[in-house]
Amino acid sequence: MARVLALTNDLLFGSRLQGDLTAAGHDVRLISSAERLRGLLTDENPEPGRWVLVVDLTDAELDGCAVLESLAALPAMASAGTLGFYSHVESGVRARGKEAGFDLLVPRSRMVREGAALVEKLGAGAGAG
């Protein structure tokens, strides 16, 4: 089981993601804004140990890559695995996500199919490729 913070403004997909990950035994908290995420990581520093940050890169207003870059220096991020998902038609997002420092980047369709397993691998500290 992994502890997961999922940053997404998409209520439908976020609910599905939360349901799928929770059903697989993960402890999931949905966050809808970068400000709230920063507050959680600063004020409520996640419990010690490995955890996973899942970021929706399909929302241009959210700019998940910039969010990850802005959080990089926070102590809580030292124990985080980071997973970004993007629309397969947005070819530049994957490259931008690599630049931003995500541990793993996957198309949204793969997130739907394999999200729980990917989170499990990142939560255990293993790269998922």
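The record above closes out task 2.4. Task 2.5 opens with a second protein, given below.
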Amino acid sequence: MHRNSNEFVVVYGGQWGSEGKGQVLAAITRDTLARPHAEIVGYGVRVGGPNAGHTVRAKDGGMVNIQSIPSMCYAHPDEITPVIGAGGMVNPHVLQNEIAMLRDQGFTGKVLVDPNTMVVQQKHIAEEHGAHLDEHIGSTREGVGAALAEKIRRQPGVITIGNWHHPPSPFCEHIEVVDTVRLLNDAEVPIFVEGTQGYLLSIHTSGYYPFCTSRECGPEGILADVGLTPRAFRNPEIVGVFRTFPIRVGGNSGGLPNEVDWVYMAQHHGVTTPERTTVTNRIRRIAKWDIETVIRVVRETRPTCLAITFLDYLFPHTQYVRDQRGLMGHAQDAWDWIQEVEEATGTSVRYVSTGPGQENTFRIDTIPF
């Protein structure tokens, strides 16, 4: 049985993470809520763990760094209920801080957490620090890989939210333990799923093992952790997000085709401030656009459409252009380049970002593929 159209969106990264997935999804939820008679409250869903950080602009205009709660919830705290899915992993201390930040934005409900969501313990973090994984594979050493390995081995020390017996924590009153698989499959409101990291960090399919994360980061892998299938929805929107200049975390973190440095970015593209990772604050590695890699990822993940972020890095004169008319009127070269991407991938570009925040992210309409 299919559901109504425009009820289901999953956004995933097509490169090595930090593509701007949260920004794109915040803009999509904004547009959904702006429809006439949109008297709806949707679910914002996330899996993954605290090893993947996101920097997003919140409802009050400030920037927040988060690792667990879906990022679009900070932009729309009154309309989007946060859900942490069954395949998720949480550090209670990180989650407590994020709930406090969410309540600062006006959120008054509860964060819905599946009982099978795993708790990352201090021993997991200590194990990854002791193994010096940051030096070997560029790990953020947040304990997620160690915790997941323990879960897969069915070790007796595994703690999930459903069997967590620690003394009550201040955040406990702000969460509700619920079967999120059943909840989402029975839902009659929009569902927005935010992927973590990027497809080229997938443990099995990226081709970059061991320089990868501990799970699959394509849309099917993300949805398997959530317990959803796009076949349940009549017109699912599966959005692959690609940066014009992809990045990887700093250090010994694996291959990065067409890699450059931040001196090059300053000299050739006017990008004078190096980016830093959300979790570790390390300077990121950066590379030029590689269309062959993009074609490969699109072929293997089959998104229904693409989102292109950091367009202003490649075409500085697009900075803060905020609609299709402005793009076509002031940056024909950028518009032509977008069409070249569509032709090369056989997939329509539906969202473009020309600066930070959802206010600089907008939908465009080109010829459908």
